[in-house]
Amino acid sequence: MRRRASLILLALAVFFAALSPLIRWYAFPRLAKIPPSQYQDMVLEARNATLLDYATMKSKKVPKVTIVQTLKGNVAAAKKIKDSTGRDVVVWDTLSYVADDKGKLVSRIPERYVFDAHSQEPVHAGGEHVDGDPVRRQGIEYKWPFLTEKRDYEYFDFQTRTSAPIHYKGTRTVRGIETYYFEQTIPWTKVKVPKKLALGATPETVEQIGLERWYSTKRMFWVEPATGAPVDGQEIHKEEMRWKDKPGKKPLTAFAGHVKMRPDYQDATVDLVSSQRQLVLTMTTYLPWGFLVLGGLLLAASLTLEARARRRTAAADGPSEPAEGAAASEPGETVVPSKRSGNH
Which member of 121, 124, 191, 288 lies 3.0 to 4.6 Å from 24 by CB, making a disulfide possible if both were Cys? Predict the structure, then answer.
């Protein structure tokens, strides 16, 4: 029975030891994915910001500028791309809506972002755009990969339609969660005018006035590394309308302010990330290491039972027979070995 039990324990030890890497390297990439139907919204605010009044074409201070970002999963588009490419993808139809302190439109920029459901790498399957202009993204946008590393990444900037490094700057604690802090600076760059502006202004009317749009920002993210989800995001954002062919004329500030995530949305994001973090850690740390330790304990138990079984078998066989020619003594009798006479 002991030997049979040791074999069963050995089989279980091998099973759990083999299951450990399978969960981490096979199951995790196939199960940890962004759902194609995900919907998320985020509200950011810039207090005491500067905006351009298109009615008077003068810049003015306002108490608050609000930026509403929505990410809506397009299930039908994702299924169509999966059927043609064989990859699990997510298609986000996103919108960045900027409103002044009275809730009136400042600008509106839609996007379509297509990416791999697990790795978050862009998938170039057609349909990518920013404000209706076709783009070909490189790097990430909005979300970091699962198990984010302490290194720089390429991050897509939808204003310039280009990618640039976003630099890892160390760890920070945000509301009790350890995060990786990333920072990206976009230098002053000439960018396209949004197709929808305040008071019905268009890129054509801006061009007729003799202006062109320039933009710069310092972008900051605090990313929870297991999920790759930002729990906080900020920008020191600047936009100018510069006069074409008049370098000496003072530009108009279109928008300037320190954009921050609204506290209630940050609380909701932290709660969501905290729950999702446990699921990711279960598949990447808790179960793989737990099964590996369990396999080791089962192996040790199997070897212990096998050793005990061998000792019991050896004891049951009894002592070995005396060697041939050896003298046997009677009880109480001492046998003295004889000395051979030496040569004289």
Answer: 288
In the block, tokens 């809730």 appear at 103
Q: What gap in Å lies between CA 247 and CA 244, rounded to an integer?
A: 7
Specify whether the backbone of 80 is left (phi greater than 0), alpha (psi in -120 to 50) or beta: alpha
Which residues of 192-228 form beta strands (DSSP E)?
A: 196-197, 211-224
Where do we find the tokens 């920072």?
183
Calculate the average pLDDT of the chain. Answer: 89
Question: Is the pLDDT assigned to residue 329 strictly greater than 80?
Answer: no
**Comparing 20-24, 28-32, 324-328, which segment has the lowest mean pLDDT?**
324-328
CA–CA dist 141, 91 (Å, integer): 12
Between CA 179 and CA 194 the distance in angstroms is 33
Other C-beta atoms closer than 10 Å to the C-beta of 330 total: 7
The three-point CA angle 251-254-255 to 5° equals 130
User: How far, in Å, CA of 287 to CA of 66, rounded?
Assistant: 43
Strands (E), 74-176: 89-99, 105-116, 129-130, 133-134, 153-157, 162-174
Eight-state DSSP code of residue 140: B
How confident is residue 337, by pLDDT bands cut at 50, 70 and 90?
A: very low
Give yes or no for residue 8 having a pLDDT over 90. Answer: no
Rounded CA-CA distance 201/106 in Å is 10
Distance CA 159, CA 58 (A): 23
For the chain, helix, strand, coil in percent to 5 are 30, 40, 30
The Cα–Cα gap between 147 and 170 comes to 15
pLDDT band at 314 (very low <50, low <70, confident <90, very high): confident
**pLDDT attached to residue 344:** 45
User: Of 277, 172, 257, which Cα lies nearest the Cα of 221?
Assistant: 172
Q: Tell me 288's DSSP state.
A: H
Prediction pTM value: 0.84
Between CA 67 and CA 314 the distance in angstroms is 81
